[in-house]
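Box S1 | Example of a co-folding query
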Amino acid sequence: ADWKYAFEESLTDVQGVYATKFKEAVEANSDHTITLFPYGSLGESADIMEQTQAGLLQFVNQSPGFTGALIPEAQVFFVPYLLPTDQDHLGRFFKNSKAINEDFVGLYANQGLELLSMYPEGEVAMTTKSPVKSCADLDEVKFRVMTNPLLVESYKAFGATPTPLPWGEVYGGLQTNIIQGQENPTFFLFSTKIYEVTDHITYAGHNNFTTALMANKQFYDGLSAEEQKVVQDAAASAFDYIVGYQKSLADSELDKIKEAKPAMTITVLSDEERACFKNAAAEVEAKFIEMTGEGGKAILDQMKADLDATRD
Ligand code: 6CS
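Box S1 (continued) | Returned holo structure for 6CS
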């Protein structure tokens, strides 16, 4: 059969490269084909999730930044400084974590979704119209975030005025000054030309962009054991590829931004300058537990244990 797979980025972005690897592996190992639907072809992130839950699509790549509204525990990815900036540690964590590979699989299943893979897309950077050296600089800044209640809490705790918006409104919103800042991994700042409508890039090390591939569960459960293995193996090989692929991507794409816009200021905050962002983490973590209760606390604790276990 021909299976439909939608994702939130272009074909040449990280999600598109992952999707291409997944498609190649499925097509090489079965007689099924996959049609890829990049960002925009079927609507926003929320639309492709709806279409997958309704069974119109078989696969969807959606980031917890959007899934957090559906699965509150998935908001855990927005507790600041929970994930390490070290790419090798991150790769080991996603591959081996019980929270990711068992606990979240159950939570997604409750929403009719078979979670196939969670993977990193790179350290998140803030891009703004005015320089950011501390939380105080975010005062009065309308800062776009993905539609995720905990991410709203994060940016409140950082001192900004969080504004949840779908991706399609971000470039125009910055252009017309409805918002004055947003965050995303470096490669995305280049590929979507967000550097054209912001003047400052700031790295606070507060997060790494996580995303997830899932299948409609009814569709997945209806596959033979052999087909399920093809799907799982394809997700695993795409995962292995993408972890290496995105490792040096932030550096190469930052160079392209510098070349495209020499006036762009790029700041890596010092430990001292990061203090207010780090202090906000405890407050956001408490909010997460308030929102998700015992179940959320259990997954947070499991993630911390998994992160410890995968350190060097
Ligand atoms: O900020 C966003 O909405 C988007 N950012 C990335 C890196 N991927 C997809 C998502 O829609």
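The first helix runs from residue 14 to 29. The radius of gyration is 19 Å.
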